[in-house]
Amino acid sequence: MGNNPNVQLVLNQMTHDDNHDTDAGDVGVVLEKAKPQLKKPSFYQVVVLNDDYTPMDFVVEVLEQFFALGIEQATQVMLTIHHQGRAVAGVYPKDIAETKAQQVIDFARHNQHPLLCCVEKKPD
Q1: How many domains, in total, are found in the chain?
Q2: 68 is in which domain, residue-wise?
Q3: Are 122 and 46 in contact (CB under 8 A)?
Q4: What is the pLDDT of residue 124?
Q5: What is the DSSP pairing of strand 116-121 with strand 26-32?
Q6: Residues facing 27 on adjacent strands
């Protein structure tokens, strides 16, 4: 029992009424720790969409800046976007994916480009 981390020793002290003189000691109760049911978090992919107006070098810059891709990998993703119409730029938990997508859209608008991206649940 002492070496098992899944067993917790709980000591319940008996309550003493002020009017009764009781000499009861501690009572030990052994409880098994329930293993928590952990669920893997859902991941979402940020998909960058092609358009006919945003320059390729701007897309590469976005991929480097917001998705931490190196120049070669960013160029490959940009070419996939250009030829296939879309590509996954990164995979994140939902809140982070939504934030990155909005940051990209805001940055593109600030630089007067119509670049869009969307967030999709990652297929299992």
Answers
A1: 1
A2: 43-121
A3: no
A4: 81
A5: unpaired
A6: 12
Closest CA to 49 of 76, 88, 75: 88
> What's the pLDDT tens digit per position in 38-92?
888 899 999 999 999 999 999 999 999 999 999 999 999 999 999 999 999 999 9
pLDDT at 24: 54
Contact assessment for residue 108 and residue 54, using Cβ atoms and an 8 Å cutoff: yes
| Cβ-defined contacts of 94-100 (< 8 Å, 24+) | 94/42, 94/43, 94/44, 94/119, 97/43, 97/44, 97/45, 97/46, 98/44, 100/46, 100/66, 100/67
Give the span between the Cα atoms of 99 and 88, in whole angstroms: 15
pTM for the full model?
0.69
The CATH number given to whatever domain includes residue 115 is 3.30.1390.10
